[in-house]
Design goal:
heterodimer, A: alpha/beta, Rossmann fold, 2 domains, 6-stranded mixed β-sheet, 18 helices, B: mainly alpha, two-stranded antiparallel sheet, 13 helices, about 75% helix
Amino acid sequence: MPLLQMTGVDKRFGQVAALTGVDFSLEAGEVHALVGENGAGKSTLMKILAGVQSPDAGSMTLAGQTVRFHGVDEAQAHGVVMVYQELALVPSLSVAENLFLGKLPRVVGYRDLYARARGPLAQVELDLDPAGEVARLGIGERQLLEIARALAREGRILVLDEPTAALSSSESERLFAIIEKVKASGVGMVYISHRLEEVFRIADRVTVLRDGRLVGTRVVADTTADEIVQLMVGKSVRRYQRSPRETGEALGTFEAAGPGLEPLSIALEAGEIVGLAGVIGSGRERILPTLFGLEGTASWAGDPVRSPRDAIREGILLVPSDRKAQGLVMELTVQENVSLTTLSRLQRLGFMDARREREQTRTWIDRLSLRPPEPHKPVRELSGGNQQKVVVAKSLATEPTVLLLDEPTRGVDVGARAELYDVIDGLSRRGLGLLLSSSDTEELIGLSDRILVFRGGRVTTELRPPFDYEEVVAHVTGARQLA
Amino acid sequence: MSLARVNWREVFARFGLVMALVALIVILSLLSDRFLTASNVVNVLRQISINAIIACGMTVVIIGRGIDLSVGSLLALTGVVGAGLAVGGLPAGLAVLVAMALGTALGTFNGLFVAYAGIAPFIVTLAGLTIFRGAALAYTDGRPISGLPPLFMTLGYGTFLGLPVPIWIMLGFLLVTHVILRYTALGRAVYAIGGNEEAARLSGIPVRRVQAFTFAYSGLAAALAAMVLTGRLNSAQPSAGVMFELDAIAAVVVGGTSLFGGRGGVFGTLVGALIIGVINNGMNLLNVPSFYQQIVKGGVILAALLIERLVATRRT
């Protein structure tokens, strides 16, 4: 009897089917890897397992007993614990307090608490002072501490969500050793990862999801990286492919270096779209913030870029990955957001030129076909796709020469996505140079003139069209290195 | 959406404040026949003028997601310096200008610490609160400055077109602040920073400069209020303005400006100051003991915040 059996799990979000009839099982003492491209449904499935979300249909049994969780507490009471990739520790509290957070006795006896902490710490071979502050721990130690915390909660099923994303290779090695050990004690683990070499290193079985459906479960010893990549990619119909383009004149060259990013340079032509691919932790996610002057050091065409203001002066604009946190002022209207980057141009003696501001907004609402085409609507009330158009409009209002697109379609529904692709294509045809950083392979292939693949903080491969979907995924996941 | 259906929540969010003020006025005019007389209305307006002027500056700071606790002490310091210079022989007009420049400079001092040293506004201006008070006491040796030139008398007691000068100053400053907030690039930047500092920074807005400006403006407002108060008292007191920061913050918050920044405006602040002023005035007319007045005032502030909270959470 398996430790966990999920059968026929369905989950819809509005019109979107996130999961359709997915089966998943886990044995005691097994590491079961869950892979698939972004949006395949991995996180949703695990959220259902951990009681964060409830399924629309399907059943779940733990050791043969049917269960239905109505919250994280209930799942934890049954021994199902999530180990999140964004680490859920309180840095200002001690190691021991973090271990028992939420399970602390009403009156905390520290001597007792510290003594009790030694057990779980020993299980993950962490030689830490239970009284020490978590803030002083490295990221690798914190990850192990999270596993210890899950074990302290008597977790029988652990869900590890991309646990190595932020770890160095030696920290990852240490983690793998601990996973082996925990496994030997009979705990079952679900291992979500984009890195196939890890899957082949530590997993017993691997399940592939695609577009919310189960496409296959394989015993790792009986399969190959190529087969897994094929399952991940499928025979998907390419939804978007932009038509070829003439080469343009050189615009300039980016030079950049920074934490988690080895020195690199990227030359950009007018009208060129350079795709940046790589898993989280590969350095790919750092490159655009670095080029925009937010971290590390960067220069464009020989001029240093030390701040967003420097970048904007050079004609470089960023469409940030998190539009709510970084892109928009939600309280303000469409027009006020579009004007944010051009306040100095829209003023005369300090006063906003209402007519020019209105015209500028009108222009961008029309060009990007914003819906509703209403300049005075608070951006808070727009759909995700239209909010993203406002971020793009805001950037384009400065008439930049280079646009940095960081995950431009994250959280955007399929229809609005195609529209954004047309917008991006149109920008290239007007002579802009674009860098497109994305975790969506389909998007990269559909839009890019060339794709730079990042691994370990540097560009390891440069791919040129015609792109082969499988080949791109193989490079990004590291399957190519396994073959 | 049908036109006939009235969205009461929207109406309430937009006009709730004014409705509350009107309701208060109606109730008080029923309770006391002295309340709704021309002289009492002018009286209320004059009484709130100093708080409203300070609160204009506070509104700008709070929209930019800051807070300024130093305004009461800053008022005392700029008041005694202005009065001291005037008594010492500087032409009165010039002394007033110097005092206002000093207020702006002290506000900038706060602003630089907040914007460039990254210290929380609460802490910086708390330090300012004691530093400026100490400086005012040191400058005067703890004694009030009197024997002021007639200009101060005009600021405090003059009338223009039948209305007291302090009311004109309040209305003028209110208008200037409104224009800055609504019609200038600077004002837009204040809203953007208060609403989402990171997005403002990534849009190339000079976030730190704008933050420093908001505190400078609050310093200017406090200095202007100091001139009016000095005129009203016909002397400058180093102990003036104690707890004024709380009245100003109360007016801003009751007036619907969000303490989380990015939202609000100066007309709401005027209504907030009026609500507080009307309550004070009404309780005086009804002979409510002053100890109880404080309790009622605090209750009103809590109620206003609670209502704002309810409206805000429904929205998201």
